[in-house]
Structure prediction request, 595 residues.
Amino acid sequence: MAFEIIESCVNCYACEPLCPNQAIYAASPHFLIAAEKCTECIGDYMDAQCASICPIEGAIIDEMGVALNAPGSLTGIPPELLAKIDQQGTAAVL
Amino acid sequence: MQLPVLNSESSGAAKSGCSSHSCGSTDDQLGHLPEHIRQKVHNHPCYSEQAHHYFARMHVAVAPACNIQCNYCNRKYDCANESRPGVVSEVLSPDQAVKKVMAVAATIPQMTVLGIAGPGDPLANPERTFDTFRQLSEKAPDIKLCVSTNGLTLPDCVEELAKHNIDHVTITINCVDPDVGAKIYPWIFWNNRRIRGREAAEILIAQQQKGLEMLAERGILVKVNSVMIPGVNDEHLAEVSRIVKAKGAFLHNVMPLIAEAEHGTYYGVMGQRGPTHEELQKLQDQCAGDMNMMRHCRQCRADAVGLLGEDRGQEFTLDKIEAMDIDYEAAMVKRAEVHAQIARELEIKQAAKDAKQQLVAIEGLKAKGPATRPVLMAVATKGGGVINEHFGHAGEFLVYEASSEGVRFIGHRKTTPYCEGGDTCGDGESALDQSLRVLQGCEVVLCSKIGYEPWGPLEAAGITPNGEHAMEAIEDAVAAVYEEMRSAGKLAESAAVQKAA
Ligand code: SF4
Ligand code: SF4
Prediction:
């Protein structure tokens, strides 16, 4: 039972001091979670702390590989539009 | 020469509207502030238009984390709206930051102000921010410190801020109404939870207001920044201005929203537009009755090092400062000498200006005729208060308004220098088109020189290029051109509409 930080992490440090288990550490090219220390915050907080402050959709995933913050859930940008921008670049919205 | 007629007559009168404190150069804007505040902002490169040319400020990126999301920000890139470096910029540890600041201060004695503004929210990184401030207060007491924040955790930090050599705090306040706030802030991180919508905005606003009051109580200067977002908070900002002033902010700075699709921000990709120059100016005028505005603010690049318009950041990369051996005691002596020298220079300049102003005031009284319509003029300058830049090299224009009441500084408009722009810039707009767009509303552009090529398009756009006042003082030249236009009968059309005050 552990979460994982993946490559879209922008190294903003926000999650690191919040972890009740000191499971998060700065690494290159991005922050990482020590799987053996992560409890998904159960017993400490209602919500996983790292996923509650992380500003990047998709940067933290669960064991199933599912993003804790889904596309569009933090910015409010409609997911279809995000997908379009991903494929065609910002020209898609001009 | 600012306000030839008004300046000497109305300064004592308690009049709202275009009264003496909101017109003229920013030095005059600060003129009505209480003495202890003037002392603090005097020679501050962010507050005094004049000091801007002589002193420098720098920022260090020690605070990467943020605790809120703004719709005009994308954490992946530098924030265009709040002079905040992006997370991709090199984040420094407090020790590295202190070393860098001292290296810069020793090399560039004009550097007097150190700010922490990001890349996230400085007060969401309290250990890193306060470690930097604590070390600098001790080791480099001749440097003023300032910090910018969204205000969410400000009330908890006031005590700590008061312990350091903090010159002023900037709070970004875009609203005082949670319904407006819900359209600007999608979420905040608060008490170990992500909170969204109206509830989030309500908490943020309450914290900002409380923090502002607590700072004012302790006598720490507070500046408020607002980003003007048309259709979202534009009509609301006059109210914001009133409230933050009542709670003790000494300056309210309204900045235009900068939103481009390629920034990937919510506003950018959703097509939210920024204000036009006219809209921004109108709002700044509306607020000016209540509050001093900082029209010369350039939303400067937060990570630039050096004097206005230069960036010497490359001289102070981590490996270079690592190799430097700094004797700050000796540097402080040298810095004090340089500061005193600049202060003398500024004093002489001011005295010359005062003497001139009196002469002009008398002339202005003689020349009283029917009121004429106001005219906007753009000026290309490298600084120093004179017209000394080629049209084609100008990366920005200073806009002045001339009217029968005098000449006043309105603001800056940025552009891509025509000669460097090549055929296209960004979205396929030529540099000349861009300049024409930013000059919209201006009838004259004053520069030291202008090529043959842009001449025609400028005239076609109703903007008269004028290179006849090269090296002259800006206000004098603007006044002279206005006078020429008056003599030529170009200002009469709406004279009937205008009423003499
Ligand atoms: S879920 Fe909780 S325990 Fe696991 S890394 Fe994130 S903050 Fe730490
Ligand atoms: S909060 Fe998200 S983006 Fe920031 S360091 Fe942690 S995982 Fe990376």
User: Anything to note?
Assistant: Chain A has one domain: 1-94. Residues A 5, 9-15, 31, 50, 53-54, 56, 59-60 surround iron/sulfur cluster (ligand 2) (CB under 6 Å). The first helix of chain A runs from residue 49 to 53. The two ends of chain A are 43 Å apart (CA to CA).
